[in-house]
Amino acid sequence: MPIRYGACHSAEIDGFVIEGHVPAPEIHRLLEERPDAIGLSVPAMPRGRTWHGRSDLRQCARPYDVLLVEHDGSARVYRSYR
């Protein structure tokens, strides 16, 4: 995982890297779709994040993006939380 996509937590799941507070639905989607990518990242810590441990992910106070990080080091938005 390129350092610019680093965050507070790292994991490896079935060959993919998960970096930061990536919501479980996006991890499940990643494992179903199996894109040719490094994995997912929510870089740093979303400001005002209140959904930790909650089932309603829309409680996040500030918008943030879950990024799909490609093998070439680029990334694209996999899902936006607004």
Secondary structure layout plus pairing:
Elements: E1 10-13, E2 16-19, H1 24-33, E3 39-41, E4 64-69, E5 75-81
Parallel strand pairs: 2-3
Antiparallel strand pairs: 1-2, 3-4, 4-5
Helix-strand topology string: EEHEEE
Tell me about the largest β-sheet.
5 strands, mixed
Mean of pLDDT: 86
Q: What is the overall shape?
A: globular
Regions with little confidence, pLDDT below 50 for 5+ residues: none
Rg (C-alpha, Å): 12 Å
Arrangement of strands in the largest sheet? 1-2-3-4-5
The first-to-last residue Cα distance is 25 Å
The fraction of residues in strands falls at 25-35%
Structural class: alpha+beta
Question: What percentage of residues falls in helices of 4 or more residues?
Answer: 10-25%
Describe this structure in words.
This protein is an alpha+beta fold and 82 residues long. Helix content is 12%, strand content 29%. The protein has a 5-stranded mixed β-sheet, with helices on one face. Helix 1 (24-33) links the parallel strand 2 (16-19) and strand 3. It is globular, with a radius of gyration of 12 Å. The model has no long low-confidence stretch (mean pLDDT 86).
Summary, kept brief:
The protein is an alpha+beta fold. The protein is built from one helix and five strands, in the order ββαβββ.
Keywords:
1 helix; 12% helix; single chain; 82 residues; alpha+beta; 29% strand; five-stranded mixed beta sheet; globular
